[in-house]
From TrEMBL:
Pfam families: CN_hydrolase. This is Nitrilase. Residues 1-259 form the CN hydrolase domain. The lineage of its organism: Bacteria, Pseudomonadati, Pseudomonadota, Gammaproteobacteria, Lysobacterales. Signal peptide: none annotated. It comes from Stenotrophomonas nitritireducens. Gene3D superfamilies: Carbon-nitrogen hydrolase. It comes from the Bacteria.
Length: 299
């Protein structure tokens, strides 16, 4: 199975039709590269705020309210492209109105068979909390996709090991991470989180990113990072864990995912964090004991 993750340069579409034309063009490129799964970035829906007047663009509450009219066209667009291109499309994320002016950061997964799967972002960043508008999700999912199991961790969620571990224990061998970061530090945090999740769970992790500047948007103003596909850092995989990465202004990083290689590599693994995970739950390791210097004689 091939997967393509986007380094998506934020634009300013004049209307939904212009947005749709670009999505068709971008996803057709991923399909031409042989991708069975294509992953777009977090907050992609906020690009649609550019279709409104400047006073709406500049105000996040107004932007979030305005883009709700595009929710059904959004689902129809990406569902249609998934069927047409015979490809799973992870449509970044849409800030979805859940009522009373509250929103969830929802990642939609549209399948070639016409199914609509989704995962809400669970952990909120400082920016999201400060808006006073966004709520975290309350359900953790794993999807059956072409004979394998996959999960989604939206950006910041990739930095938390326990929910991803729960997805791994439910059978996930692929973690998809739509992300949006504005600083080098933020980009590094998500990248390191993705590498750590690949290592400790012996799974593939595929991260998409936003890129460029959108000074008209309070949420998409600056975008930093590279899209990449990661694997465990062990025999049978790259030493740095990087299967593919964008660079030189490439829009997609494309990698072949060999799930059988996990079992083959486990048999000759230098380490097996996924198998050895329960070792950290030993009773003696559940709570650290403060041991004053010199409290025990040297052996």
């Amino acid at each position: 199975m091939k997967i393509a993750v986007a380094r998506y340069e934020i634009g300013a579409p004049v209307d939904f039709a212009a947005f749709a034309r670009r999505q068709r063009q971008e996803l057709a490129e991923a399909a031409a590269a042989g991708a069975r799964i294509a992953v777009l970035p977090e907050y992609l829906s906020l690009e649609l705020a550019a279709t409104f007047a400047p006073d709406i663009q500049r105000e996040l509450p107004a932007s979030l309210a305005a883009i709700q009219r595009y929710r059904q066209p959004w689902l129809e667009l990406f569902s249609g492209l998934a069927r047409e291109l015979d490809m799973h499309v992870v449509a970044g994320s849409f800030l979805l109105d859940t009522g009373r002016g509250r929103y969830r950061n929802r990642s939609d997964w549209l399948t070639p068979q016409g199914a609509h799967l989704w995962q809400d972002k669970l952990q909120l960043t400082g920016f999201e909390k400060a808006t006073g508008l966004i709520d975290g999700g309350d359900a953790l999912k794993v999807f059956e996709v072409d004979g394998i199991r996959a999960g989604v961790a939206v950006c910041y969620d990739s930095e938390f090991p326990l929910p991803v571990r729960a997805q791994q224990e439910a059978g996930a061998r692929l973690l998809v991470v739509p992300s949006c970061t504005d600083t080098e530090a933020g980009a590094t945090r998500v990248r390191v989180g993705c590498l750590a999740r690949a290592l400790e769970n012996r799974m593939f992790v595929a991260q998409s990113v936003t890129a460029g500047r959108a000074d008209w948007s309070p949420a998409l103003d600056v975008n930093t990072g590279e899209a990449a596909v990661y694997a465990p850092m062990d025999r049978g995989f790259p030493a740095d864990g990087v299967l593919a990465r964008t660079g030189d202004a490439r829009r997609w990083a494309v990698a072949e995912l060999d799930f059988a290689a996990f079992e083959a590599s486990r048999a000759q693994a230098q380490v097996a964090n996924d198998r050895d995970w329960p070792g950290q739950w030993q009773p003696a390791l559940q709570r650290a004991v403060v041991d004053p210097a010199g409290s025990d004689p040297a052996p």
